[in-house]
Write a structure and sequence with these properties.
Blueprint lengths: L1 E4 L6 E4 L3 H5 L3 H17 L1 E4 L6 H9 L19 E4 L14 H9 L13 E10 L7 E5 H6 L3 H7 L3 E4 L1 H6 L8 H6 L3 E4 L1 E3 L6 E3 L5 E4 L4 H15 L5 E4 L6 E5 L3 E5 L10 E8 L6 H4 L9
Parallel strand pairs: 2-3
Antiparallel strand pairs: 1-2, 3-13, 4-15, 5-13, 5-15, 6-12, 6-14, 7-8, 7-11, 9-10
Bound molecules: N-oxalylglycine (OGA) and manganese (II) ion.
Length: 301
């Protein structure tokens, strides 16, 4: 296995090992998994090119890393291991209108976020495969929350060390349209509170754990809390430190939800189809979940 860095401080293309190698249930698979897992811990974003992707292969590969999330309520793919991101209406095969729920969801995905930080159980990683790629736009952009933590001054790092932050799916959706998160979604996904910092248990490196879902810093008055969150989001996603992935047929990208943020980029969605399939791996205690939980469960949001 070889790796080719994608940017100066995070991300790597994996060369010489395929998803199928890792998915292999035998000793060869164990060995391939160990190599890819080590690269994942180190680089946070991994790119595999020219994969012959199928749903079965994506699931078998993803399962190597841990249990898979079931796609959230009211989303395409609900009840299955796949979150489906597309502007194609399954029933008619036509492109959906700009005010269609899936168009609004695509817009919400274009806000910087990490997957599942609003859930009661956060995600270790996401695996995204490109199934239909538009001829222009539709890139996915990444920022390293670990590199952003390292770029802080010692004073700020100390100040934020034990801060906890509330995350809510309805909050990120609310930035696109007031009632985009339905009652059913709100009921299934109440706000969750996490430390602002996730320490990787393998290499001991700290990372921010923020996202568009983050709406309040626990124990801080609202104006200060909102201003600080906005400032930190800007710091983390500084364009000088992002990687933009332009999708090619056969690409699969995997990212560490503990150490990165990402966002989709727009494309002419009224003219061109885009279809992406995501599997999401739940974090376990070995991935540092316990270290992310606040010491005392706060009583109110
Ligand atoms: C995702 C996501 C962005 C994109 O799959 O979690 O945010 O570019 N995707 O489709
Ligand atoms: Mn996402």
């Amino acid at each position: 296995m070889d790796v080719r860095p994608l940017s100066h401080d995070f991300g790597a293309e994996v060369i010489g090992i395929s998803l199928a190698d890792v998915a292999d249930p035998g000793a060869r698979g164990d060995e391939a998994y160990a190599l890819v897992r080590a690269a994942f811990e180190e680089y946070s974003v991994l790119l595999f090119r020219n994969q012959e992707i199928t749903d079965e292969l994506q699931i078998a590969y993803s399962r190597r890393f841990g249990p898979l999330e079931v796609a959230k309520v009211a989303s395409l793919g609900e009840g299955t291991p796949f979150s489906i991101l597309t502007n194609v209406d399954r029933a008619t095969g036509k492109l959906v209108a700009p005010d269609h729920k899936e168009s609004l969801r695509a817009k919400a995905n274009q806000l910087w976020h990490t997957d599942s930080s609003f859930k009661q159980h956060p995600a270790l990683a996401s695996v995204l495969s490109a199934r239909i790629i538009p001829p222009a736009g539709g890139e996915t952009q990444f920022a390293s929350q670990r590199a952003a933590w390292d770029r802080l001054s010692e004073t700020t790092r100390t100040k934020l060390f034990d801060a906890c932050v509330w995350h809510d799916y309805a909050h990120s959706r609310g930035q696109i349209a007031p009632h985009l998160a339905s009652e059913r979604e709100r009921a299934a996904m109440p706000p969750a509170c996490w430390r602002i910092r996730w320490r990787n248990p393998v290499n001991g490196r700290d990372s921010f754990y923020l996202a568009s879902h983050a709406y309040a810093i626990e124990g801080q008055p609202e104006p200060e809390s909102k201003a600080l969150l906005a400032e930190l989001m800007e710091h983390i996603t500084d364009p000088a430190h992002t990687y933009t992935h332009a999708w090619q047929a056969g690409d699969v990208v995997m990212w560490d939800n503990r150490a990165t943020m990402h966002r989709g980029r727009p494309w002419p969605a009224g003219e061109h189809a885009r279809l992406m399939m995501r599997t999401t791996i739940s974090a376990s205690d070995a991935d540092g979940v316990a270290g992310t939980r606040p010491p005392v469960e706060p009583a109110t949001a």
